[in-house]
Amino acid sequence: MRESHKLKLLVWENEDRARAATDPVVAKWYRRKADRYRCQWVDAVVKESRKGWTLRTVEALLHICFAILIILAFALMCADVILGLKK
């Protein structure tokens, strides 16, 4: 499970505890804890999105290189066939 999902679950859990708490001091403490987890959750989402961007870029470059390799192989096969026909 990703870190952002774990933190989101902690936010929900603390918000539920704050709603269920009968003592206002305890409820306020759970809300503060949920706010802290919410800030950490947003940071984790931003980090994961940055990590995903670099991974997508590398993956796209690998696909481009693979496509160029296929095109070159096809061109070599065509050139071999054409040279074979000329003989």
Describe this structure in words.
With 87 residues, the protein is mostly helical. The chain is built from two helices and no strands. It is rod-shaped, with a radius of gyration of 28 Å.
Element-by-element helix/strand order = HH
Helix tally equals: 2
**Largest sheet: number of strands, sense, barrel closure:** none
Return the domain count: 1
- Rg from Cα: 28 Å
Return the average pLDDT rounded to an integer.
89
End-to-end span in angstroms?
A: 63 Å
Beta-sheet strand percentage?
under 5%
Helix content: over 70%
Structural class: mainly alpha
List the helices and strands and how they pair.
Layout: H1 3-20, H2 24-86
Helix pairs in contact: 1-2
Give a quick summary of the entry.
This protein has 87 residues and is mainly α.
Annotation keywords:
93% helix; mainly alpha; rod-shaped; single chain
